[in-house]
Amino acid sequence: MAFKGTVNRVTESRTVESIARAGYPVSGLLHLLIAYLIVRIAFGFRGEADQTGALAVLAAQRGGSVSLWMVAFGLVALSLWRLAEVVLGLHPGESPRAHKRAAPLVNRFKAFGLAVVYLALAFAAVQFALGVGEQGSDRAEGLSARLMRSGSGKAVLVAVGFAIVAFGGYFIYKGASRKFLTDLTVPGGRLMTTLGIVGHVAEGVVLCAAGVSVLLASFMQDPSRATGLDAAVRALGQAEHGQTMLLAAAIGFAAYGLYSVALTKYSRM
Predict the structure, then answer these.
(1) CA pair distance 59, 68, nearest whole angstrom
(2) Which stretches make up the DUF1206 domain (predicted)?
């Protein structure tokens, strides 16, 4: 209880909350860059349409190292807030007695999952800032190949695939049901609601496709298929009406990026 009380006092700080909010525009920027990369792929240009591809774009710009350190800072700040939600439940900043609430376990798991994702992206941003970043598809393929060497490793890969599909399915549900509106401090409004629906559903569909690619890779013993988001994007491009589907995915990621930027001000904390 003493530990929870300490975490609760930290989340009561408006300064800490403001720092944590810095992660939202960073997330928005990465989604907008992924949308840009998807558009490039739709028109036949090379690129890797995932978070590391977005980080590589930043790294290639003038002053890219500074931008990447800022990205890492924002993501770490937001991940620490998510870890506070693991301890206290969602939106601890809204209640001075958050440490005494009974928070559903599922909410704690969601917060933990997001914290892990943000920390992994922050680590990747630091690697690119230091000049040792590696494309996500190469890293995923290498890790998948190592996991496929043993039965337990294959089981882990299958579990990861199902987890990504489940996460994508939740995004689709959250967007289609407009459940994301409960995360806002204001009524959604037409623009915010549209961005939230399109963004959540599009990202959920691509995440589901990414999870399926991991599952197919594990069942077919082909680590080259387990390249996550980038593999899902390229699979869309190879389907019938692939260019149209890629442009639709790009619009969805851009919508989620703009929605994330708006969360900087309007997210419940």
Answers:
(1) 7
(2) 22-87, 111-177, 198-263
Distance CA 185, CA 187 (A): 7
Region at 245 (left for phi over 0; alpha for psi -120 to 50; beta for the rest): alpha
On whether the CB atoms of residues 225 and 174 are closer than 8 A, the answer is no
Cα–Cα distance between 41 and 206 in angstroms, integer? 15
Q: Give CA 174 to chain center in angstroms.
A: 15
Sign of CA dihedral 112, 105, 200, 210: positive
8 Å CB contact between 24 and 118: no
Q: Give the C-alpha separation, 165 to 231, whole Å.
A: 14
What phi, psi does 25 have (nearest 5°)? -65, -30
Residue 233 three-state SS: helix
Q: How many CA atoms lie within 13 A of 266 on its CB side?
A: 18
- Helix, strand, or coil here: 184? strand
| Distance from C-alpha of 205 to C-alpha of 195, rounded to nearest angstrom | 15
- The model carries a pTM of 0.89
CB-based contacts of 106-111 (< 8 A; 24+ apart in sequence): 111/82, 111/83, 111/85, 111/86
- Which among 105, 55, 46 is positioned nearest to 233, based on CA atoms? 46
